[in-house]
Fold:
Amino acid sequence: MSQFNDRERAFESKYARDEEMQFRILARRNRLLGEWAARQMNLSEAETASYAKDVVRADFEEAGDEDVIRKVLGDLTAAGVECSDAAIREALGHKEVEARRQIIEATNL
Structure:
């Protein structure tokens, strides 16, 4: 019975690590997307840092990516930057790959 309990604890531990890793990747991805959008809007360095944090916070509004996409698209449009929903989704995909790479490299040090 103890082997079963050990395996169960190991599985739960792995699940928790995987969920934490996914959370960190998505938060990093959103920060990178915020920095990308800030460059499109020609924001200063301080404004870029603040805006990136706002994009990360926007992801807590609802499940999925729609809240982040809606925020970035609305902000880019308000700033007079021509950008489509598809372009933001493409950037989001690229930033997720970059975020995953950064997180994995940081954990393998």
User: Anything to note?
Assistant: Residues 2-40 form the longest helix (39 residues). The mean pLDDT is 92. The domain at 2-107 is CATH 1.10.790.20 (Major Prion Protein). The chain is about 80% helix and 0% strand.
